[in-house]
Amino acid sequence: MRKLTQALIATGIALSLSGCATVYPTTQSPINSNVKVRGENVDFEKVVDAYLITPQLVKQLAPRTVKASDNIGLEQQIKRYQYKIGVGDILNVTVWEHPELTTPAGAYRSAAESGNQVHANGAIFYPYVGQLNVVGLTVNQVRDKLAKALSAYVTDPQIEVTIASYQSKKAYITGEIKNPGQQFLTNIPLTLLDAVNKAGGLSDNADWHNVTITRHGKEEKVSLAELIQFGNLTQNRLLSDGDVVHIPRNDANKVFIVGEVSKPQMLKITHYGMTLTEAIAQSGGIDKLSADATGIFVIRGQRDVNKSTVSNEAEKIDKIADIYQLDLTNATSYVLGTEFYLKPYDIVYVTTAPATRWNRVIAHVVPPLSGFNNLTESILRVRNW
Is 294 within the bounds of a domain? Predict the structure, then answer.
């Protein structure tokens, strides 16, 4: 790796001394320079695209607008929802005017302690009736079934059946939540939003955008950011028995601020997003003495590019990075910076080099991007250059 770094520096020096034509990034300006990547010559114009940050570009790259919307399908699911009794649930049975058949209770016994538990065979034991299979039934169905069975002993029995304790069905919520664990399903439908609220809300390190719900071995990704921030109810779900809701950490939602800023650092993108201006401001702003106002670059690597695809064969060369330039000598650019949203693993680089040395800047920054796993190494190269 040290040899590669030395080779890159030598390439930059050779380019600056040889009088090669200088390339200025335009709204879509390829970079005409060659550099060694994995031992082969690769044209920058084939692996990198350079853009000026303009109002048109900001509009094109702006995050998708999310609007509040209803979820008719979920509303219908909730209306149709009925809790089905399962093994472990405890039932409370009342037979009016027949206290001898009513589930006994007392001052020192709760309904759950004195009720009829559904056993592993799916049945409860009830006087005169014996074993009564109740698994998979609603309380109304159990009531009708029990009334029919008791009619041989009681004239027109008036029965009420309730669930004293819900124990059979549960969903799990894990990850970056304040109170992770299981949540029992009851006669009240449990939605994703309900589960998050019951668990105390998300932690500070939660990734709001990539929440997964696993059901029967299949994963579905939903965005709590859209649901909670914007009221997009299409991201809400009705949870079922065995569902696993996982809120991942936001470790991947980070950007790197390097170069001529007061405090080079790594920043985490919040669930509200982060703009270029915010990132620079959080890093203490650009160094007024050494920074070049025309040389603020955002380097966005292509994460799905395999290093082995980069070769001198045109048909096999993939783009390894998009590079965006903000020119703060133009007053309107300050506004553009507040509307240019960063993406995970973006590198914001403030250079001392004027735009006329663009080729040299890119020669030191881009090659490591041919392998996305080397992004951290590219940051170190830029900072030490």
Answer: yes
Q: Are 223 and 209 in contact (CB under 8 A)?
A: yes
3-state secondary structure of 144: helix
Q: Could you give phi then psi for residue 216, rounded to 5 degrees?
A: 55, 40
Q: 326-340 pLDDT, tens per residue?
A: 988 877 788 899 999
Do strands 265-268 and 254-259 pair parallel, antiparallel, or not at all (unpaired)? antiparallel
Distances (CA, A) of 274 to 164, 223, 278, 344: 49, 17, 6, 10
CB 365 within 8 A of CB 380: no
The pLDDT tens digits of the residues spanning 285-340 come to: 888 778 887 889 999 987 654 444 444 444 455 678 899 999 888 777 888 999 99
Range of the domain at 310: 2-63+273-384
Mean pLDDT across the stretch 108-116? 67
The enclosing domain of 214 has a CATH number of: 3.10.560.10
Q: What is the DSSP string of 187-206?
A: SS--BHHHHHHHTT-B-TTB
pTM greater than 0.85 (yes/no):
no
Residue 96 CB partners (closer than 8 Å, separation 6+): 158, 159, 160
